Amino acid sequence: MLGKRRQRGGLRAIVFGLAMLMLMLAGGNAHARGEADAIRGRARPYESPQRFALELRFTPYRPGVDSDPNLHGATPYASTFGKNRPLMLSVEFDWQALRIPYVGTFGPGVSAGIWSKSAKASIAQAPGGPSGDDTTLAVYPMSLLAVIRFDVFNRMWKIPLVPYGKFGVGYALWRASSPDGTARATNDAGKVIAGAGHTVGFEYMAGLAFDLNCLDPQSALQLDNNLGVNHTYIFGEFTGLNLNGIAQKNPLRLGANTWTVGLAFEF
Amino acid sequence: MIMKRLWLSAHLCAVLFAVATFSASARAQTVITGPLSDIVTRVDSKGNAVTVRPASQKPTWFSKSDCFADQEIVVGLTVTGVTNTVQIQAWAGLSDCASNENRNGQNPTCWAVTDPRALINGPTSVRVRVQDIVANMFSTNSKLSSGIGKQYVHNDNAVCSRQTPGSGETGISIFFYAISGGTTVDGTGYAYKTTVKLVGPPAVTGITLAPGNSALTVGWTPAQGISTILNYNIFWATDARPNPASAPVDGDGAPDASDASDDAAADPDEEVDLSDEDAGQPDDADASAGSTDADASADDGGVDASTAVEADAAAPSMCRSSLDGLVDTINLRSTVKSGQTNSSGGLTSSYRIKGLHNNKLYAVAVGAVDILGNVGQLSTIQCGEPVETIGFWDRYTHAGGLAGGGFCSVNRVVASPDTGGSWHAWWALVAGAAGVALVLARRRR
Q1: I need a surface site. Which of A27, A235, B331, B422 has the fewest CB within 10 A?
Q2: Number of A:B CB contacts under 8 A?
Q3: Residue B404 and residue A197: Cβ atoms within 8 Å?
Q4: Is there a contact between A233 and A261 (Cβ–Cβ < 8 Å)?
């Protein structure tokens, strides 16, 4: 028991020590740079105003269609498309409307993406097998988000890591199609249902961005002076897409918990 | 007196000599010049202008379809220095036609492509038929028998099916000469050079046929030399019927005897629709076409029923159809329909034939089309039946899924946790948005 406590205490001490070391190094660096600039009589490099962020996002995605309780355990999605997760490509644009001192930026953001998955339809008659027809599900997700970025570490201590979080409402248009266009199927009531619709839901993300400026500050400065790009990040995040219908009777369930990587630019 | 007569005679001789000399020099000055541009006008047999191919598709060359369409080229010429006895005539040949030996010798290499006609000074135009140009160009060693080609002969479209040797591209010149007394007037002549190509690309290989819902997807291996491929023509016969010696292709791509026996066309009592003019439209009149299998074989020009089995031994097609033995695709039978890939040409390797009937046998073949529009030799014939298929949406709906109805479909709001969500979430969102707006407003103040 005592040994375990000592172990935990040791681990905490190591983590704390590393954190302090990084802070000191970063602070020392900044301090040294400031002194050097002062000696050379230079002013602090010009930074353009920062108001917006743009993200190019790549998300492996498999919609949770099969979680629909109406399906009673059937797995039409997995039976057709399998279990792999094709990439969803999306773009997000944020307005960093608020700068919260000693915290970071906060503001609204919008995003739009595209995703589709195709497979060969099966032959209905036994023994079945793949046919020559493609069957496709396409999803066009959009979202309205509140975005907070904790860039205080990067700004104050030059630690090039920016944690961030997002939360908002998501909306996705979707379409199931065959080679002849939007798929149509007859339900048990004999009604022909078109394979297209929309699903509303929540989205939430939490991630960490790495500021690439620290790798080549000179080029970053040039990029800022020439194009107004203040920071360039690569990021990775947990992405929760709860696109399972809000206030909808029979939504196509498109929710998924996944992850996203991408590039972000602040300008 | 004698001296006077001698003087007169000498004078007359001098005058005659001068006239003769002047005449000869006048004939020698007859000059025919051609059009400034290589692209000459093309007309149909009625003289109406036809649309020429785009510049990227060799509009000056002669293709098989140009030949079958009985196109004519109209060459605008300018003539100077003509006297009253000179005529113009066009000759075609693989070598120089100025030589009388090449036109009228023992083994001529040129042939007349127009009748001689009177020539006057100034601009003129000569129409030459493509069929006449290609008529004699495929003789052995390009030598014609004596007398052949000397007189203009009006040819028909039978000459269009003659094959060009080697690569299929043969250069040819059309010569326009001033003729006087059956002899070419020295120093005259204009040669219009072009190329004839009457055969399409080699047969497409690697044909596959995959059944779809009221459709068949045919695939193939892209042809060699794709830069010369304009597109692919896909042909399918609506009168296909199982070959007694084989079986059709099924969904797994393997011969399936049971399918053959199941097919209605296999039953000699069943009628086959030979009047199916509207492939692509569901056809309810199949059973009323009034023709039996035996009729079909004879009527569609296919192999006679009594010889079909023997023919199959050499050609392992798994069904019989109007595509059997089809070489010339210029005049397709009504039982053969065709489609065309887009102009991305050689890069395309599949085509989906739509609007077919499920569980009906079709025969399919593919021909590559070169940039002149020549359809190449047809591929091997594949047979298959469209079948009902099950896609994602069918599976979802049949499993009890209730979503869908269109992008604008309106779903009623419910509070059941089983089916998605509730109004509470919306209220939370609205409250959150209001909070953010409030913070922003205060910050701005």
Answers
A1: B331
A2: 200
A3: yes
A4: no
The class of domain B205-384 in CATH terms is mainly beta
pLDDT for position A7: 52
Evaluate whether B361 touches B255 at the Cβ level (below 8 Å).
Answer: no
Residue A41 contacts B where some CB pair is shorter than 8 Å: no
Q: Do B251 and A187 touch (CB under 8 A)?
A: no
pLDDT in tens, B85-141: 778 888 898 878 877 788 877 778 888 899 888 878 888 888 999 999 888 877 655
For residue B440, what is the DSSP state?
A: H
Q: For residue B205, what are the CA distances in angstroms to A239, B326, B353? A: 48, 17, 18
The domain segmentation of chain B, as residue ranges, is 24-197, 205-384
- For A219, residues 6+ apart whose C-beta sits below 8 A from its C-beta are none
| Per-residue tens of pLDDT for chain A, all 267 residues | 444 455 555 555 555 555 544 444 444 444 444 444 444 545 556 788 999 999 999 999 999 999 999 999 999 999 999 999 999 999 999 999 999 999 999 999 999 999 999 999 999 988 888 999 999 999 999 999 999 999 999 989 989 999 999 999 999 999 999 998 999 998 888 889 999 999 999 999 999 999 999 999 999 999 998 999 999 999 999 999 999 888 888 899 999 999 999 999 999
Which chain B residues have a beta carbon less than 8 Å from that of A199? 403
Give domain limits for chain A: 1-44, 51-266
Binary contact (B388, A184; C-beta < 8 A): no
How many C-beta neighbours within 10 Å does residue A95 have? 15
Among candidates B393, B423, B439 on the partner chain, residue whose Cβ is nearest the Cβ of A183: B393
Interchain pair A128, B406: CB under 8 A: no
Note whether A196 contacts B406, CB cutoff 8 Å.
Answer: yes
Three-class HEC string of chain A: CHHHHHHHHHHHHHHHHHHHHHHHHHHHHHHHHHHHHHHHCCCCCCCCCCCEEEEEEEEECCCCHHHCHHHCCCCHHHHHHCCCCCEEEEEEEEECCEEECCCEEEEEEEEEEEEEEEEEEEECCCCCCEEEEEEEEEEEEEEEEEEEECCHHHHHHCCCEEEEEEEEEEEEEEEEEECCEECEEECCCCCEEECEEEEEEEEEEEEEEEEHHHHCHHHHHHHHHHHCCCEEEEEEEEEEEECCCCCCCCCCCCCEEEEEEEEEEEC
The partner residue sitting opposite A197, judged by closest CB among B395, B407, B426, is: B407
Cβ separation of A65 and B396 shorter than 8 Å?
Answer: yes
CA angle B280, B282, B288 (to 5 degrees): 120
Local structure of B30: helix, strand or coil: coil
pTM: 0.66
- Inspect the interface and report whether the beta carbons of B252 and A197 lie closer than 8 Å: no
Residue-wise pLDDT for A70-127, tens only, equals 999 999 999 999 999 999 999 999 999 999 999 999 999 999 999 999 999 999 988 8
Give chain A positions within 8 Å (CB) of B405. 193-194, 196-197
Minimum Cα–Cα distance from B418: chain A residue:
A69
For residue A200, the chain B residues in CB contact (below 8 A) are 421
Contact across the interface for B407 and A244, Cβ inside 8 Å? no
pLDDT level of residue B155 (50, 70, 90 thresholds): confident
Give residue B431's identity as a one-letter amino acid code: A
CA distance A39 to chain B (A): 39
ipTM: 0.81
Q: Pick A51-266's CATH classification: 2.40.160.20, 3.30.365.10, 3.40.50.1000, 3.40.50.720.
A: 2.40.160.20
